[in-house]
Design goal:
The complex is a heterodimer. By secondary structure, chain A is α/β, with parallel strands linked by helices. Chain A contains 24 helices and 11 strands. In chain A, the strands form 3 sheets. Chain A has a 6-stranded mixed sheet with strand order 2-3-1-4-5-7, with helices on both faces. In chain A, strands 6-8 form a two-stranded antiparallel ribbon. Chain B has one domain (8-80): SH3 type barrels. A 6-stranded antiparallel sheet of chain B has the order 1-6-2-3-4-5. The chains are: A alpha/beta, B alpha+beta. Chain A binds chain B through residues 64-65, 67, 69, 95-99, 102, 179-181, 184-185, 187-188, 206-207, 210-211, 214-216, 219-220, 312-314, 316-317, 320, 326, 350, 424-433, and chain B through 26-27, 29-30, 32-38, 40-41, 43, 48-56, 58, 61-69, 71-72. Strand 9 of chain A pairs antiparallel with strand 5 of chain B, so a sheet runs across the interface.
Chain lengths: 612, 88
């Protein structure tokens, strides 16, 4: 019972059993569900109403046991034995029930009121697996309910059973067995009596797909092709909406200008708010929104399918060579979406040494906020026109991502040879059965939860940054504007790295959000040069060329965008996760050192060859 | 007396073949993790696939597919599963 007198139902279960999907379906609370272990480390709470009674739902972290050997297990165990929960629902995967029952038996030793929920019945049915729920209930001695959470089937029955169980006299707790063996044997017997299968091998389709996705010949090529396909769809699909948004927001800008004039607002106010704040904001939105709205759902679809653990399986050998944990591949993939999420995801790595390696190297892969910068520069400087343009851009972007992944391996190896010395610890990685992605939910969830959230954050930063940059460009100290003073000061350092003062300042001002780096730089250039027509790639290219940009400048900007300090949100997350200023500083210095070194080398090579 | 056989370890189990676990000599954290996953003495294990570099490999343990690195799998000894031979 909670403080408000509502009954509390805890959801426990193994990772990858659809527990968070069930939690969302029951509580209607928008909360992201993941496909890998430990995604829900913090206890998520929600509520629902059943027959007029308000219930509090608690989504415990997914664990394989309650032995309190990891933080997740500790949280789950403490909550179940703490007396706050009126009943526990153990969520089990019908596709591999036997393994799931081991945890169910353990939960039954901890708390008197238990309901076993056999979830993913639809997935099991597709594989010819049937579960005799009554036989299971007889064998276990507690209520058993079958559900298909993704289709919202069986949810009412589950709540009914949980409420009934919570109201019954407490079941005497069985003594915990001396070792885990006994539980395993009991689970084996229970599953043997309850599970039957029509097909010789219920998993044959999964195995065939696994052979394609992970075999020696096809594994790596298919992985690159899938990533390339996602990038190509993002690039090809984002072109038109970006142009529309840009044109639409340009129109809004004209209306705003008219409105300011009509109200008789002073010119400086109009310039600061419309040409400063609104222009940068509209650039960020039109450049950022379409790629994000395409990339996030596509990536979430792969996540939902269960592909990411296969990526970890494929890349594990390389991480082993780097003396790091194979689960780092999962946190690296999360980093492609958002580095802060990737850093937080590092909690799934048990060894503190390997976790630090994963945290320190996470921002070496570009997050979604850096894709538009990379894409725009690629399209302006290295992609010709014609029907193959977006394919060419996707190929080049893929090459940049592979560079980031390669640098992750290299830096992980360097860290394990120096400050984080040690041998890889042992770990197990579950490759869950493939799930049919729920397209509608995926799109809704990734647009609402991820896209709008990230865009909102970028916009919140872009508006004041636009004002600052406008003020800097228009307030003069002595003969020159503040902007001129700043960029002149940074220019020598920038030039050394193949950039210029404006770019370096844009990267510094972009610390709160990487999305605004290029808009800020364009804004600063604009205050010096002029943008003749609408914001087409050719016009931007001409503006940049007018400011002395060459191919070397473009390459160095892209490399520095790949490898520089993490954004402020990521830095805060790193501090929160490591609890150490020293390691946070390390996580800032490592990618920055990589970027400065690479850029300086490229710039020097460019000068030597006479192309810089 | 039974003839001495070279010991079969999980890491040496060929793809597509099965065995019954005999002994788990992994360090204690790993041993307990595998017990949580249901791998105890007498459990049937099948090697389902290997990664592109041959390491790690994925094993079918109680209906779930679990990837384990070669170094860790080498600490687990097996009796090969043959038709007509009962589980220990």
């Amino acid at each position: 019972m909670n403080a408000a007198g509502e009954r509390v139902i805890a959801l426990a279960g193994n990772p990858n059993v659809g527990k968070s999907t069930l939690f969302n379906a029951l509580s209607g609370l928008r909360q992201h569900t993941g496909n890998w272990p430990g995604k829900t480390v913090e206890v998520a709470r929600g509520s629902c109403v059943h027959r007029g009674e308000r219930l509090e739902l608690v989504d415990l972290p997914g664990t394989y046991s309650l032995s309190a050997r990891s933080p997740e297990e500790e949280i789950a165990r403490a909550f179940l034995t703490g007396g706050e929960a009126d009943a526990a629902v153990v969520v089990c995967d019908a596709v591999c029930l036997e393994r799931n029952l081991i945890l169910a038996l353990q939960v039954m030793e901890c708390i008197p009121h238990v309901v076993v929920c056999v979830n993913l019945l639809d997935e099991a049915r597709d594989r010819g697996i049937t579960v005799d729920l009554e036989a299971l209930a007889r064998g276990l001695g507690v209520r058993v309910v079958g559900t298909s959470a993704a289709r919202e089937e069986g949810l009412e029955e589950l709540l009914e059973a949980a409420v009934t169980a919570a109201g019954e006299p407490p079941r005497p707790l069985p003594p915990a067995p001396a070792d885990g063996m006994e539980r395993v044997r009991r689970a084996e017997k229970l599953a043997a009596r309850a599970v039957s299968c029509r097909r010789a091998d219920p998993m044959d389709r999964d195995r065939r797909l696994d052979r394609l996705l992970t075999s020696r010949l096809t594994g790596i090529p298919v992985m690159l092709a899938l990533l390339g396909l996602v990038l190509w769809l993002t690039i090809a699909g984002a072109n038109y909406p970006s142009a529309w948004l840009s044109a639409g927001l340009g129109q809004v800008e004209e209306w705003l200008s008219w409105l300011f004039h009509a109200m008789g607002a002073p010119a400086w106010l109009h310039d600061a708010l419309v040409l400063g704040v609104f222009k940068v904001l509209s650039w960020v939105v039109s450049v950022m929104l379409p790629p994000m709205a395409i990339f996030f759902p596509l990536f979430t679809l792969l996540e939902d399918l269960g592909y990411l653990p296969r990526v970890a399986f494929l890349l594990d050998h390389a991480f082993q060579k780097a003396r790091a944990c194979g689960k780092q591949a999962l946190t690296m993939c999360q980093g492609f979406g958002c580095n802060a999420v990737g850093v937080e995801g590092c909690r799934i790595i048990d060894s503190p040494r390997e976790r630090l390696i994963a945290i320190l190297t996470n921002s070496l892969v570009p997050c979604n906020g850096r894709f538009p910068t990379l894409l725009m520069l690629l399209s302006i400087f290295f992609v010709g026109g014609g029907p193959w343009a977006s394919l060419q851009a996707a190929g080049l972007l893929l090459a940049l991502l592979v560079l980031g992944v390669g640098m992750t391996f290299l830096c992980s190896r360097l860290l394990s040879a120096t400050v984080l010395r040690g041998v890889p610890s042992s770990f197990t990685l579950e490759l869950p059965p493939f799930r049919k992605p729920r397209v509608g939910q995926v799109v809704a969830r990734s647009v609402l939860d991820r896209t709008l959230f990230v865009l909102g954050r970028a916009a919140a930063v872009a508006a004041p940054a636009g004002l600052v940059i406008w003020l800097c460009a228009n307030v003069t100290v002595g003969e020159r504007s503040i902007l001129d003073h700043c960029t002149a000061f940074l220019d020598p350092v920038g030039r050394f790295m193949g950039l210029d003062g404006v770019l370096l300042m844009a990267f510094i001002l972009g610390f709160p959000a990487n999305e605004i780096v290029l808009p800020i730089a364009l804004m600063a250039y604009l205050s010096k040069g002029t943008l003749v027509e609408a914001e087409s790639a050719a016009a931007v290219g001409a503006l940049l060329a007018g400011q002395g940009w060459t191919e070397v400048t473009a390459v160095c900007t892209m490399v520095f965008s790949l490898f520089h300090w993490p954004c402020s949100t990521t830095c805060l997350t790193i501090y929160k996760e490591t609890g150490s200023l020293k390691w946070t500083a390390g996580a800032i210095l490592l990618p920055t050192a990589v970027g400065v070194t690479l850029c300086a080398a490229i710039a020097a090579a460019g000068r030597l060859l006479g192309v810089g | 007396m039974q003839p001495m056989q070279p010991e079969l370890t999980l890491s040496a189990l060929p793809v597509g073949e099965s065995g019954y676990m005999m002994e788990n000599r992994a360090q204690s954290a790993m041993e307990r993790r595998l017990t949580d996953l249901g791998l105890v003495r007498g459990t049937r294990v099948t090697c389902v696939m290997r990664g592109p570099a041959g390491d790690p490999a994925a094993y079918l343990i109680r209906g779930a597919l679990i990837a384990i690195r070669k170094a860790d799998a080498a600490a687990i000894s097996l009796i090969p599963a043959r038709p007509g031979v009962a589980a220990p």
